[in-house]
Write a structure and sequence with these properties.
The chain is α+β, with helices and mostly antiparallel strands. It is 56% helix and 24% strand.
Length: 370
């Protein structure tokens, strides 16, 4: 068992090194598929499309009924206020009270009119402190409110049109980006192939010029050619070697461009396999023009800009003339008193309820001995 463990520990660096220097062989279709899946340009296009889809989903969610919860945990107010007495004099009395409220409801945008309908409930509590302490509750079990703008464009309708066109533009732009990625990958693929051919030709040219230079040196030694011809042969050899270096640099740049397109790791060796045949495509110019005008994101973007411009013009006209906002609400709003702090407060709270309910005031201490 120990021997097996030691063997695995010794072999693991070799396996890791073999994996690090693995060779990736790509055809044209493999390169395009890999670029569309993990290339940086494809990932950017995919992220832009996903962002547009989330914006569209968020907008559609806003068209559904919205749950609203709002309130004030504490609103304490303490001040010395002037109080007019029955004899006509004014007395400054210290007053302190705290207001707490909580509201829950649903709101729904109305595309037909452009208004907003809200249905909810609300409760509030008023606590008075000091010598005349009391606690009052105010509830609205049902509260219906309608808010409607007059003589203005229906913003929700225009926003829906704009969002629909924006989603279409994003989807079409993503499809076009995929084709652009495929075209750029094909260009980089064949650019690397061309540089491979150029490097092989340059290497062969060096071999030929080196052979000629060796022969010319022998001919120069026996007096068959002059020194000028020998120098020309040596110059041709040096130029061929310089061309090889230029070809190596150009091939390295072409390979780096293809690696960047397909997001290939730097430690992986790359080998390309050229296609056996090139497909012949017979395109109809009329059909191509028709489909481009119908599906191009540029055309759809122009339509989106036109809708946005017409909305801006209508909004500018509305802002320059008379407009109004109508708000109406209806609901049930009773008022109730809580448990008093002592007898005087109970009588005061009872008078409040009696005065509002139309019944004679009663002492709360008698109603609730506790």
């Amino acid at each position: 068992m120990r021997v097996v463990a030691v063997f695995l520990l010794c072999c693991s660096p070799l396996v890791a090194e073999a994996q690090a220097h693995s060779t990736v062989t790509l055809t044209l279709q493999d390169a395009i598929l890999r670029a569309r899946q993990q290339g940086p340009a494809a990932q950017a296009a995919r992220s832009a499309r996903d962002a547009a889809r989330w914006r569209d989903e968020a907008f559609n969610a806003r068209l559904l009924p919205q749950l609203r919860l709002q309130g004030d945990a504490a609103n304490l107010n303490r001040a010395i206020n002037p109080i007019d007495l029955p004899d006509g004099s004014t007395q400054y009395i210290s007053q302190a009270h705290n207001t707490t409220s909580l509201g829950l409801g649903f709101s729904q945008a109305l595309p037909l009119t452009g208004g907003t309908l809200t249905v909810g409930t609300q409760i509030s509590r008023l606590d008075e402190f000091g010598t005349r302490s009391s606690r009052l509750y105010q509830t609205s079990p049902i509260l219906v409110q309608l808010e409607q703008q007059l003589f203005r464009p229906r913003q929700i309708v225009w926003d829906k049109r704009v969002q629909h066109l924006d989603a279409r533009v994003a989807e079409q732009a993503y499809l076009e980006a995929r084709e652009d990625v495929a075209r750029a990958t094909a260009d980089a693929f064949f650019a690397l192939y061309a540089q491979d051919v150029a490097l092989r030709n340059a290497s062969n040219n060096v071999a030929v010029n080196d052979t000629l230079y060796t022969l010319n040196k022998g001919r120069f030694e026996v007096g068959k050619i002059g020194e000028n011809d020998l120098l020309k042969s040596e110059l041709a050899l040096l130029r061929a070697r310089s061309a090889v270096e230029d070809a190596r640099v150009a091939r390295a740049r072409a390979e780096a461009a293809l690696r960047r397109q397909i997001a290939l790791p730097a430690d992986a060796e790359l080998t390309i396999v050229t296609p056996d045949s090139i497909p012949i495509v017979d395109a109809d110019p009329t059909l191509a023009e028709k489909e481009a005008l119908r599906n191009s994101s540029v055309v759809q973007q122009n339509e989106l800009d036109d809708v946005q411009a017409r909305y801006d013009v209508g909004l500018a006209k509305a802002n320059s003339r008379f407009n109004a906002t109508v708000s109406a609400s209806a609901g049930f709003n009773p008022l109730g008193g809580g448990q008093p702090a002592h007898g005087a407060v109970g009588r005061r709270a009872g008078r409040r309820r009696g005065g509002e309910g139309g019944e004679p005031a009663r002492d709360n201490d008698q109603q609730d001995p506790a």
